[in-house]
Fold this sequence. Notes:
The structure holds three protein chains of three kinds.
Chain A: H1 3-9, H2 25-35, H3 37-53, H4 67-94, E1 98-99, E2 102-103, H5 106-130
Antiparallel strand pairs in A: 1-2
Chain B: H1 11-41, H2 54-61, H3 64-75, H4 77-91, H5 100-123
Chain C: E1 5-12, E2 22-29, H1 37-48, E3 67-70, E4 73-76, E5 90-93, E6 100-102, E7 105-106, H2 109-117, H3 139-145, H4 156-160, H5 162-166, H6 173-183, H7 191-198, H8 212-216, H9 223-239
Helix pairs in contact in C: 6-9
Amino acid sequence: MSTEAKAALREFRWHMPANWWTRNRHYFLYVVREFTALPLALWLLWLLVEIKRAGDGPTRYAPHESTAFVVFSVIVLLFALYHSYTFLSLTGVIIRLKVFDRPVPPRLITLAMFGAWAGASVVIGFVLIWFAR
Amino acid sequence: MSEEVQHRMAHTHLIFWFLFSLGGVIAALLIPVHVLIQGILGPLHYVLVVDRHYDTWVQVLGNPLVKLYLLVLIAVPFYHFAHRLRYLLVDFGVHAAKSVPAQVVFYGGAVVMTFVTIWVLLTTVPIKLG
Amino acid sequence: MPDKKVTIHATRYDPDKDEKPRLQAYEVPFYDESMVVLDALNWIKSNADGSLSYRWSCRMGICGSCGMMVNGTPKLTCNAFVRDYYPRPILVEPLNNFPVIRDLVIDMDDFMHKLKAIQPWIIRKQEMPLGAGEHRQTNEQIDDFRQFSQCINCMLCYAACPVYGLNDEFLGPAATALARRYNLDSRDQGLKQRLPVLADPEGVWECSFVGECSVVCPKGVDPAKAIQQTKLDTTMRFVLPYGNRE
Lengths: 133, 130, 246
């Protein structure tokens, strides 16, 4: 065994503590950001069930409106907004665009993403409400 | 990492990341308004929403463009969720979540969701043109 | 100035005697408002305990050797002012996520291997003869990579990275930022050599964009950005038609 390898054995190895993500506010917010995937997935599964139930026929179809469902949706909305806010903010960091050989400022890209979010929300909201008449 | 490590392009990881990003953008742009209107404002009767009544809900679901839209809205974000939840497990020290079987379970699950969504969209309400 | 004292809790670890690292407290005179944590360590070594081991060199944020955890955050100790912590005690520990050799000294071999693996120098397919003159660059071309070239290899970003803390196979922030610095350089032609390292299963894909590397960087480098941009560029090379061209 080389002297280097012997020295390495005497080193104190690093072990990540299991609660590492509670030790720093940024780490915690990161874990919350990643966790948004779970409530969003559950809500989309609900939407799929709502679509499936349209096959039940006119007499048996009754839309969800229990308090529990509304509370669930409110919680999901908070996570959904946090996902949208973080994901769209970070796209400005990632996307590199050049127009006429000049880099587009990241803030402008982020602004465009938030604009697209607002635009899409208005169109979808319009369709969901307009065709209910 | 030692000097002898052989490096290689990870094409599967590249595809996972691409689908993760795509699903993330779609989830970010589209999901909040659905949750707000279909999950909160509709059930509380603040506004009339298409899924509140059988007739309007079926009418909308019969439209092929709506079917295509719902496929994108529901199926693609699951690749994003699969990726995030797999890495969240890694973050919590579950090293097995990095393994190939775990990749098959998580991303395979997203593929299954895509087929389930297609099946639901095609079998519940027949496509009506016009 | 009255005799103000600041308490420094420093990690001590002697592999010959200690089972695991422990903390030792020192009372250090806070003699000057411009005093930094490194000054406090130097005072301890000169006046209280000559056996305290730590790395340092330039004292001006250039050499990148005095990085340690100060109250749990990776800092260059030459750049961490005692006045910002006083009168609270200051906890000085070796950088997180690395093996500890002794006291505040970590083993940086792993990072050195990674640094070498991304070949952080200009690679040309064909060296131009000296007689051909300089490789000219415009200011805009320099702006493409300038920020990433500020890295001083201090490893604070590795100490801040939970992904690296959980898995030391991960290529990590600084190495990727430096790879990007050369990949974005108009004089460089080494992308194809670096790509297998960057896009390795333990390369950029393992990053889940916690972003703390960019927060702690003392030189304003944004390694998180370098990693995400590398993911996007690499993906686009394969997803877009003709994306794989040189």
